[in-house]
Specification:
Protein name: FAD dependent oxidoreductase
GO molecular function: oxidoreductase activity
Largest sheet: 8 strands, mixed
Order of helices and strands: EHEHEEHHEEEHEEEEHEEEEHHEEEHH
Oligomer: single chain
CATH topology of one domain: FAD/NAD(P)-binding domain
Bound molecules: flavin-adenine dinucleotide
Distance between the termini: 41 Å
Number of helices: 10
CATH architecture of one domain: 3-Layer(bba) Sandwich
CATH class of one domain: Alpha Beta
Shape: elongated
Keywords: Oxidoreductase
Radius of gyration: 22 Å
Strand content: 25-35%
Number of strands: 18
């Protein structure tokens, strides 16, 4: 039997949500312990495209209503953290691109006119031409318009590594998690048979939240999964590109981000409409053929002869949403000692943490003294998907 442990806040899930929360709580003097059943970042976080959205793309379907959304402030907050002057010191984390771009392949002027009719949008985008274009679009045959969005793109594996560093000794690799009840109340969790008591238990286990809630006999808050079928390709001819390519619909036709592979080549990671419903219905070969056709049509000057391709199926996990729910805030629900959250976007991890701090404040949960943690089995860092699939 392991000796029992106690902490102020026991966090389940070591993705961006849990790790960000953990680092902020520790910085504020709380004792924390974060429990992870697989690898740090290996759920959705390291499979994400790493774009720190400011919400501009929502204007494409009319959902951007001004500065009130939490997401509008995210690029600034992350930039400050990356500069070492923000809420966390992320100064060593690599910024892959200082901007994300919006690119219309030339036939969509009408769509863009209504898009730019919004003042909120005009304040956030800047047209770019010539040498200011992303390198992959600098070609004599390129036709279309490109706009620079004030949204940065991060190296997520490096971000997760930094947050794991900020976690100090408070990370625990675990398999079996069960409720620990005392006098009929949830007092903590039993983790692989070890009792861990805490003032608050926070589930931020992404797609794992539903199952964790079920172990407590709870079905609320309800969760939804949104499946995606992403594509990645690696070739010595690829130059970095970070852009939403607009199609006729409300969602980008293609969202391209570029990630440095260990062998020095770039990997293009393709999402957007390509990866949604119709893409999910395609098998791997069909999905790769579709992606290849898209790139040949949109960027015919890029030589893909040596490209190696792979696809990745991954679900976004979110609170079940009614049609009225807003997509651009983190979600938090609480009952008794238990808090359950989904950031809904990597970019919104700071917003989820802020909501949890507000809940602690409201309930008078303050840092208390706990014995130091013993040496604990530490969960590994996730390997980037492109290193697994395109080594
Ligand atoms: P996760 O990263 O999924 O982490 C949950 C962790 O909990 C995992 O490590 C898992 O192993 C662990 N866990 C699960 N069950 C248990 C259990 N029972 N016990 C212990 N641990 C458990 N957002 C953006 O802002 N920008 C983007 O560009 C972007 N691109 C995306 C692209 C894709 C393909 C996807 C799928 C998502 C994207 N997102 C993006 C959304 C973003 O990735 C997620 O909102 C965010 O990563 C969720 O973080 P999380 O910590 O809640 O969950």
């Amino acid at each position: 039997m392991f000796p029992a442990l106690s902490t102020d806040v026991l966090i389940v899930g070591g993705g961006i949500a849990g790790l960000w929360l953990n680092a902020r709580l520790r910085q504020s003097g709380y004792a924390t312990l974060l429990v992870e059943s697989a690898s740090l970042g290996g759920g959705q976080s390291v499979k994400s495209q790493g774009i720190i959205h400011g919400g501009t793309k929502y204007a494409l379907h009319g959902a951007l209503s001004g500065a009130s959304e939490a997401i509008a402030d995210m690029p600034r907050r992350w930039r400050e953290a990356l500069a070492g002057s923000g809420e966390l010191d992320l100064s060593g984390v690599r910024r892959l691109s200082d901007a994300h771009y919006l690119w219309s392949p030339g036939t969509l002027a009408g769509k863009l006119t209504s898009f730019f009719a919004s003042k909120a949008v005009r304040a956030r985008v800047e047209p770019v031409k010539g040498e200011a274009l992303p390198a992959a679009l600098q070609h004599a045959d390129f036709r279309g318009s490109v706009y620079r969005l004030d949204e940065l793109v991060l190296d997520v594996p490096g971000l997760i590594e930094r947050l794991a560093e900020l976690a100090g000794p408070g990370l625990l690799a675990a398999r079996e998690i069960a409720p620990l009840r005392e006098a009929g109340e949830l007092a903590g969790l039993s983790v692989d048979g070890r009792a861990i008591r805490a003032q608050r238990i926070v589930f931020c286990a992404g797609a794992g939240n539903a199952e964790l809630l079920a172990t407590l006999g709870l079905s609320q808050p309800a969760m939804q999964r949104r499946p995606l079928h992403m594509v990645m390709l690696k070739a010595p001819t690829l130059k970095p590109l970070y852009a939403h390519c607009l199609g006729g619909g409300p969602k980008p036709r293609l969202t391209v981000t570029s990630h440095p592979a260990a062998d020095g080549q770039w990997v293009w990671y393709l999402g957007g409409d390509l990866a949604e419903a119709e893409g999910v219905a395609r098998d791997e070969a069909q999905q790769i053929a579709t992606a290849r056709r898209e790139l040949n049509e949109l960027l015919p000057w890029i030589d893909l002869a040596q490209a190696r391709w792979a696809t990745l199926r991954v679900d976004r996990a979110e609170p079940a949403q009614s049609a009225l729910a807003r997509p651009d805030n983190a979600f938090l629900a609480g009952q008794g000692r238990l808090l359950v959250g989904w950031p809904t976007k990597l970019a919104l991890a700071p917003d989820l943490t802020e909501r949890i701090f507000a809940s602690l404040e409201r309930d008078g949960v303050r840092p208390t003294a706990h014995p130091p943690l013993p040496a604990l089995p530490r969960p590994p860092l996730a390997r980037p998907a492109w290193e697994e699939l395109l080594p």
